[in-house]
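for the writeup, i need someone to sanity check this before i put it in the appendix. the sequnce is what the collaborator sent (i think, or maybe the updated version? ugh). structure was predicted straight from it, no edits. if anything looks off just tell me and ill rerun, i have time this weekend
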Amino acid sequence: MILISQYNIVISKIKEIKEVLIDGKRSWSQKRSSDWPSVRQAHLKENPTCAACGGESGVEVHHIKPFHLAPELELDPKNLVSLCESKKYGVNCHLFFGHLGNYQVENPHVLEDVKRCKKRFSERKEQLKN
């Protein structure tokens, strides 16, 4: 059990380093709430697929209002949406819809955009069936 716990801590630190150094999603000064992992897990349990394409792999929890701009909304379920990075239809939904192609950009219309996209994907699937 201790090894699993230590493994989870290491994975968490690797993700934090990736977010800061590679993705540019946040700075070192912003610390996540200790409740974030359980809130994230609960959100993914309730919303396990990508809100845009329905993808089931590489799903991330995206903050509609970014954590670095509104840390008080970090744990608010209304501020969260599931978006994948799996490129199911050739698109990284988290990057494209959540950040308009740049992780340092906020998309205040992410919910409307994913709703419109999901509708188009559904329509396209129906067209392909016929």
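The radius of gyration is 16 Å. The first helix runs from residue 2 to 22.
thx in advance!!
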